[in-house]
Specification:
11-stranded mixed sheet, 12 helices, elongated, 717 residues, alpha+beta, 5-stranded antiparallel sheet
Length: 717
């Protein structure tokens, strides 16, 4: 059975490409199943944590989970601190929370001061928690800071901070912080409804520090003191004489327990529960029904480590080590770091959580802001008494799946690489075989045809029964036929010249005999035209014979060293005598123009070039001849003034039997033109390994420039 070359290539290539495609499809399907499995696992984890928190109202009551509405600025959140705050009035330790501080101004005026003239007082407020203490920071902007008078029993006749809380037993308490010095410790004075101070509360510590914009105040108090409600207010006194409060702004009306807001503190009880249910590659959130974070455990930054690979063949291990840099570049590697916009979030709000807070578990896929990680989250509601009071949100990245996918792809492609290497060896051997045969055919074909298109050799036909064998045999037969036709063309001109000379001689002798016998035929117009026709035919045969003879003689012409400038000068001198009416302008730059070649052939080439320039010159304009040396070359240019050369004829002008002379009957009767003059010039140029070209003049005058380049000899070395 005979297989074609195309069939062999298609068969081999199809097998090689199907395997990687099948392997990639398998790994892709595996990754899809792993993603689905991860989603179900997270949903199960969220449900398990939510089940552990079901019907445990005590975990939510103290964190105001039953509150129906959360008011920004009134209901506050205590951020988790990494270390305790040093109370010194310097707020630099709160820098990480500067973007989360709450700003209060005249829009937060307490009700009894809204009818008074507004003042310029404002402040920024931040709450933080570290272990069993709550830390408060107040950055107050006040253009008139009025401190407490020394030894004064009144603590409300100056600028001061008032804190109101309702403890876990429902007892309403108020504390006032005022300072009698620009920097120093301040006490917390419990006050009654008339602002009468009691003994300072030693469990609350504070530090007052004046600033260019006003003053700063840092406080620390036990977390257990803060119950379900709390509020803060800054009272402003501007006149040091009257010392009456002119304005007050705060988080809530600190005079009434019903108007207080809340401070949500992360629950240590819930935190201890979820820590026992989490693992190192996931993060668990517990939020109340307003989305506020009650507890958080775990981190999604834990990078998925590659599982240990089973021992494999040493060859596979070596290949894996060699290709690992390539895999690290091409495959999407799990990012060690990425932006997590929820890292320090105090409130969550996404579609999955909103669905869970409505009682329906849900999952959500999202990209990190820098698109370096894919995060999946599963949310499940927490029921207490049939009501949704919160939800559990479990988050995890797909790094583990990516790592497993990469391992599968690496193992798969390691095997494919081995298969490709083996297949490549087969392909290379096959390609070398095909390439060698093609190169052999090409070399034979190049050797069989010379630069002029003559057939000088033959192509050996192959016996192989395939497309290349058929091509080789077809080319061999074609070259043989072309050789025969080429030989016929080469001998045709000499045969025509030989065969036509005898009848032409007979016709010429017959006309001469007629003129001698019949004297009245001496001036007969028909006899004159017959003589002119004979002369033209004789000139055509002479030109054809000359071209054939020159083409054959060039092959056996010997080369010698001669001065190109002398040959050019001699040719111009001869044409000046022969064409007395034509003006010639010769310019030869000073240089060494010794070249290797045949001066006789150069002279013949000059005859053809000058004859062409004279014939196409118009008026009495002179023919310009310039010989110059450019680097290692000698350049001869012959320019005339006349009709420009069509651009399409630049390359064809030197071909055989090509002429651009216009049809002119009178001119053609005087002298026939076969387009062989410049063809002979090209043959001479090729013999001297030079270059001859024709183009329109570039100096602004109409006409054509014929240029001949030849290599000069460097005999000084």
């Amino acid at each position: 059975m005979r297989f074609s070359l195309k069939s062999k290539l298609l068969l081999l290539s199809s097998v090689m490409f199907v395997l990687p495609w099948l392997g990639y499809q398998y790994v892709w399907e595996m990754e899809s199943f792993l993603r689905l499995g991860q989603e179900k696992t997270l949903s199960g984890t969220a449900q398990a944590v939510a089940t552990a928190l079901h019907e445990r109202p005590v975990l939510f009551e103290q964190h105001a989970a039953y509150q129906q509405v959360v008011v920004p600025g009134k209901d506050l959140y205590a951020y988790q601190l990494k270390q305790p705050i040093r109370l010194d009035g310097d707020l630099s330790e709160w820098t990480d929370f500067s973007k989360r501080s709450v700003y209060y101004n005249q829009q937060n005026l307490l009700p009894e001061f809204k009818t008074l003239t507004p003042s310029s007082i404002s402040f920024n407020h931040t709450v933080g928690q570290y272990q069993q203490h709550l830390y408060l920071a107040f950055d107050v902007q006040d253009n008139h800071v009025v401190l407490r008078e020394p030894n004064s029993y009144r603590i409300d006749k100056n600028d001061y901070l008032e804190i109101s809380i309702e403890d876990n037993d429902g007892v309403f308490k108020r504390y006032i912080f005022a300072s009698n010095q620009q920097a120093g410790w301040v006490n917390a004075y419990p006050v009654d409804i008339n602002n009468r101070a009691e003994l300072p509360e030693r469990k609350i510590q504070g530090y007052w520090q004046n600033s260019p914009e006003g003053y700063r105040l840092e406080l620390r108090l036990p977390v257990s003191w803060v119950g379900a409600k709390a509020g803060f207010a800054i009272y402003d006194v501007d006149d040091k004489i009257e010392r009456s409060v002119v304005s007050a702004i705060g988080t809530a009306n600190t005079q009434k327990a019903a108007d207080l807001g809340t401070i949500l503190v992360p629950s240590p009880e819930i935190d201890s529960i979820i820590k026992g249910l989490s693992y190192n590659q996931s993060r668990i959130w517990v939020v109340d029904k307003h989305g506020r974070v009650l507890a958080k455990s775990g981190s999604i930054y834990a990078s998925a480590q590659k599982s240990a690979k089973p021992d494999s063949h040493p060859l596979m291990q070596s290949l894996q080590s060699f290709l690992q840099p390539l895999y690290d570049t091409i495959l999407t590697q799990p990012a060690q770091t990425f932006i997590d916009q929820l890292k320090d979030a105090v409130q969550l709000q996404d579609q999955a959580l909103l669905s869970a807070l409505k009682g329906v578990p849900d999952t959500l896929w999202r990209l990190s802001p820098d698109k370096q990680a894919v995060i999946i989250s599963a949310a499940h509601p927490i029921f207490i008494g049939g009501e949704v009071l919160g939800a559990v949100v479990v988050e995890e990245t797909t790094h583990g799946i990516r790592s497993l996918r990469n391992q599968a792809l690496e193992s798969l492609f390691n095997q494919i690489v081995l298969l490709l290497l083996a297949g490549s060896c087969v392909f290379l051997l096959f390609a070398f075989r095909i390439s060698g045969r093609i190169q052999t055919l090409q070399s034979q074909l190049i050797a069989a045809v010379d630069k002029q298109g003559r057939i000088t050799g033959n192509v050996k036909a192959e016996k192989t029964q395939d497309e290349l064998g058929d091509l080789s045999r077809s080319v061999s037969d074609l070259v043989q036929r072309l050789a025969e036709y080429n030989l016929y063309l080469q001998s045709m001109s000499s045969r025509m010249s030989h065969e036509f000379k005898t009848p032409l001689a007979v016709i010429r002798s017959s006309i001469d005999a007629l003129k001698q016998q019949e004297s009245q035929l001496q001036g007969n117009a028909f006899v004159i035209r017959a003589n002119e026709g004979l002369q033209r035919l004789d000139a055509m045969l002479t030109a054809m014979t000359e071209a054939t003879r020159l083409e054959q003689s060039i092959q056996n012409e010997d080369k010698e060293i001669f001065d190109l400038a002398q040959v050019v000068e001699g040719c111009i001198a001869g044409h000046t005598l022969a064409f007395s009416k034509q003006k010639f302008a010769l310019e030869i730059q000073k240089a060494d123009y010794r070249v290797m070649g045949s001066p006789d052939l150069i002279a013949q080439m000059m005859d053809k070039i000058l004859a062409n320039a004279i014939e196409f010159s118009v008026g009495d304009n002179q023919i310009e001849i310039e010989l110059k040396a450019v680097k290692s070359k000698a350049i001869l240019e012959v320019k005339n003034v006349g009709q420009p050369l069509p651009e399409t004829m630049y390359d064809r002008l030197f071909d055989s039997m090509v002429s651009i002379r216009k049809e002119n009957t009178a001119t053609q009767q005087q002298k026939p033109h076969l387009g062989l003059g410049l063809y002979i010039a090209r043959l001479v140029s090729q013999f001297h390994e030079g270059k001859i070209s024709a183009f329109n003049r570039q100096d602004g005058q109409p006409g054509v420039c014929l240029q001949f380049e030849i290599q000069r000899l460097n005999l000084t070395q």
